[in-house]
Request: fold
Amino acid sequence: MKIGIISDTHGSVECWRMAFEKFFSETDLIFHAGDVLYHGPRNRMADSYSPPKLVEAIAQCPVPIIASRGNCDSEVDAAVLSMPLASPYAFAFVNGKRIVITHGHFTETQEEKAEMAARCKADIFISGHTHVSLLQRIGRTIFLNPGSPALSKREDGRSTVALMDEKQISVRDLYTGEILDSLSLE
Reply:
């Protein structure tokens, strides 16, 4: 099974479309770690900010989406989306792996994430919120933040998403497709 992983789209339909066309169109499932539509008052968006168009693109997505609610996702946002926003955690069991998906604003420190992952016996703990990609194994758990395709806060400014299959998880540059980080699941 191939899974696309994204977070912090913040209403950018262009970033969603690019991620879908380049990486997610042949996936079996998409995980979204929250902050789907609204950009928040501190984030300035370019012309790609179009929540109504993103709502439409998500509604037309042929791939099932499991999403957690982010700190910028309101009740109004949840009401117009064609998928439920699980709050504060979504859970999945894929390829024998327990996966927890959360935005990350309730578990901001690595210690809080590790505690929640242990409590849920998570093999993979996915979060967003920071807009900075991260992929690391600590003990038995892989921690993944796919970063943000719309409002990257990486030092190098690269917009990112992630892909997972039976063998590995990789963080990819949205524009070049370059693998920036990867971990084996075996």
Q: What stands out?
A: The mean pLDDT is 92. Residues 13-24 form the longest helix (12 residues). Residues 69 and 87 are 5 Å apart (CA to CA).
